[in-house]
């Protein structure tokens, strides 16, 4: 027998042994996984991405009792897999946030815009409700990009992700407060109150910006100051008209950002209840929107107190940070979905429009359809 033939036979024998070893290993893994309730996915076709296991029936107590360290590792792997799924869903808001559809001329938002009597405010309701939701979509998409890159580096980036998700929650909550009411006059009064409530922060910025521009001596200073003065004059004129309205024409927000979040959560609990999560509900109870928003202030403002509720300095385990990241995405996704769905449900016309781009994430169509009935225009 020639050396070439023996070499080929040896190679084939090694391949056969390796194939048997893998089959035995896979069978053993499947048996052990089934013992603890882990449902392994079928092997994907060559070149296709692998699916994650189904963790919904895992007996975590049994697994921890027999393999405590392996149970911790599996839980961590599950958290990372679910974070990846939520981040992928969050990325679906990118298109809507960049290029939302204009309200249809016969939509509820167009109807309410037309009901505004204040001069120069042709799109008061729709534009006031739109910007916060665009901001929410931008922040949520950025959170997804941050965590996706971090995970490729073996990191978590919980602080940055949680801060961005908190922004998405606050912005979405404002849109929900503005247009979740069904009465046109109440919605217009809320828009007036919302804009009036912003004026204090706006005036503070104007004073700082004006002082900075007046102190400049570079060649562009004069032109920049002239442009700024033109914009400020426009805003002053606009707010003067709102300030002149009678008190009963304005409904202002009270209680600050937390109150927006609380009101939005109450509305969602009634109208869009949280769906069960079979994988997570067995190992952690999700924080409410209010609780996470409060905890998230620690990330936004650099407060040290949050550390004691997020991780243990004596253990090299980032599971707590991963759990907070899941809470962040869970609350931000739910609230942004509600805000976008509300806006879309009130932007569409009475009949399906094939030219209208459905650029919101997959899964929101049913919510939009369900909410449309609540905000249908009254019959003439």
Q: What features would you describe in this structure?
A:
There is one protein chain. Helix content is 66%, strand content 0%. The protein has 380 residues and is mainly alpha-helical. Helix 2 crosses helix 3 and helix 10 runs antiparallel to helix 11. The longest helix has 33 residues. The protein is elongated, with a radius of gyration of 27 Å. It starts with a helix and ends in an 8-residue tail after the last helix.
Give short descriptive properties of this protein.
0% strand; mainly alpha; 14 helices; 66% helix; single chain; 380 residues
| Number of helices in the DSSP assignment | 14
Which word captures the global form? Answer: elongated
Could you give the count of β-strands?
Answer: 0
Which structural class fits the helix and strand makeup? mainly alpha
Order of secondary-structure elements: HHHHHHHHHHHHHH
Summarize the structure.
This protein is an all-alpha fold and 380 residues long. It has 14 helices and no strands. The mean pLDDT is 89.
Walk me through the topology.
Layout: H1 3-35, H2 60-66, H3 68-91, H4 94-98, H5 108-114, H6 124-152, H7 158-179, H8 184-215, H9 221-243, H10 256-271, H11 289-301, H12 307-310, H13 319-347, H14 365-372
Helix pairs in contact: 2-3, 3-6, 3-13, 6-7, 6-8, 6-13, 7-10, 7-11, 7-13, 8-9, 10-11, 13-14
């Amino acid at each position: 027998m020639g050396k070439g033939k023996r070499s080929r036979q040896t190679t084939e024998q090694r391949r056969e042994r390796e194939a048997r070893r893998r089959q035995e290993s896979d069978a053993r893994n499947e048996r052990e996984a089934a013992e603890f309730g882990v449902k392994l996915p079928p092997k994907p076709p060559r070149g296709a991405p692998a699916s994650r296991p189904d963790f919904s029936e895992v007996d975590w107590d049994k697994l921890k009792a027999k393999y405590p360290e392996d149970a911790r590792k599996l839980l961590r792997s599950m958290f990372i897999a679910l974070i990846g799924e939520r981040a992928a869903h969050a990325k679906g808001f990118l298109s809507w946030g960049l290029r939302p559809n204009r309200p249809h001329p016969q939509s509820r938002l167009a109807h309410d815009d037309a009901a505004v009597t204040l001069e120069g405010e042709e799109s008061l309701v729709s534009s006031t409700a739109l910007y916060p939701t665009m901001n929410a979509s931008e922040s949520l998409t950025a959170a997804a990009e941050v965590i996706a890159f971090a995970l490729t580096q073996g990191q978590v980036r919980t602080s940055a992700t949680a801060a961005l998700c908190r922004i998405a929650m606050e912005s979405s909550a404002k849109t929900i407060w503005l247009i979740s009411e069904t009465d046109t006059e109440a919605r217009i009064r809320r828009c007036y109150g919302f804009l009036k409530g912003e004026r204090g922060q706006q005036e503070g910025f104007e004073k700082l910006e004006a002082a900075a521009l007046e102190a400049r001596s570079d060649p562009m200073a004069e032109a920049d100051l002239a442009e700024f003065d033109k914009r400020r004059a426009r805003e002053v004129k606009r707010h003067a008209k709102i300030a002149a309205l009678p008190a009963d024409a304005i409904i202002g927000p009270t209680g600050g950002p937390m109150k927006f979040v609380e009101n939005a959560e109450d509305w969602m609990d009634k109208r869009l209840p949280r769906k069960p999560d079979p994988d997570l509900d067995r190992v952690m109870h999700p924080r409410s929107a209010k609780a996470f928003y409060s905890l998230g202030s620690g990330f936004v403002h650099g407060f040290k107190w949050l550390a004691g509720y997020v991780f243990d300095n004596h253990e090299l385990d980032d599971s707590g940070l991963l759990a907070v990241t899941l809470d962040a995405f869970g609350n931000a996704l739910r609230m942004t979905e509600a805000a976008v769905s509300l806006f879309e449900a009130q932007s569409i016309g009475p009949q399906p429009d094939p030219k209208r781009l459905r650029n919101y994430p997959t899964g929101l169509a049913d919510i939009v359809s369900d909410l449309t009935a609540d905000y249908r225009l009254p019959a003439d």
